[in-house]
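User: Can you help me understand a structure? I only have the sequence.
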Amino acid sequence: GVYNPEGRAMSVTAADYDNDGDMDIFVANDAMENYLYRNDGGVFTNVALELGVALSEFGEATSSMGPTFEDIDNDGDLDLFIPDMGYCCLYRNDGNEFEDVTAAAGISEVCGQYTSWAGAVFDYDNDGYRDIFISNGDAHHLYTEEDLLFRNNGDGTFEDVSLESGSYFTKAEYIGRGAAFGDYDNDGDIDIFVINMNGPAILLRNDGGNRNHWLTIRTVGTKSNRDGIGARIQIVAGDLKQIAEVKTGAGYLSANDSRVHFGLGKHIKVDLLKIRWPSGTIQTLKNVKADQILTVTEPDE
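Assistant: Let's start by predicting it. Here is the structure, written out as tokens:
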């Protein structure tokens, strides 16, 4: 059900957006509507238009680039962010359909002047709310543009903090394309590796995100695939609740660290950690100490 010769795919990602236990597929298309294929037991149906993610808030096909699913509002379901050649698109998943909240979140007014490619939704400051990084660069000419970093205010809005986040954002511009994300130095915060056209690749080390507490989880499957790709992880730390899925392919032409990273703010432990493995096995851990890289192996039984 996913064959579509009319598509002009720029990127693809997979996630269980409807939390029914199987992975769905989102295809970001160039200069046409996007596709969201709902997985119903191995049969896929394109429900993008029905669920509100085929077009932008204004009904435009915006030349979408690198999509990623993450829970931006900690309400227990996966939202969708798509960089594009317009204003970018942030879709909030309300459990039944998606709502375009790009303008209300304060993102469109900043992104409208750029051509955006790779986007990541990750908690750079470990406060428990996922933030957004976007790589930018002209699509048709060797014109440079600055990249963007938005901080999640925790109330549905985002603040552009690029100019206060280091010299990379203030002293140079590049023709950005791909970007990969992960804690390369294992110090408890997420770093960024940016690929640029006609220019150097840039490694951005995060210095300061680990001032808050955090937990990184590496999954090892036994009955499921070896890396646990597709596993859904839920954590509860006091009044902070978060979910995430194990994945690598997201964004534009990039693969990220498959370990799942949670910012915990001031919480020194995770009260409850629950993993739903691709096999269907449910695994629960309690009272997990913060500030560690934890390897969790899928139980055999």
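Now, to help you interpret it: Residues 9-204 form a domain with the Methylamine Dehydrogenase; Chain H fold (CATH 2.130.10.130). The chain has two domains: 9-204, 213-297. Let me know which part you'd like to focus on.
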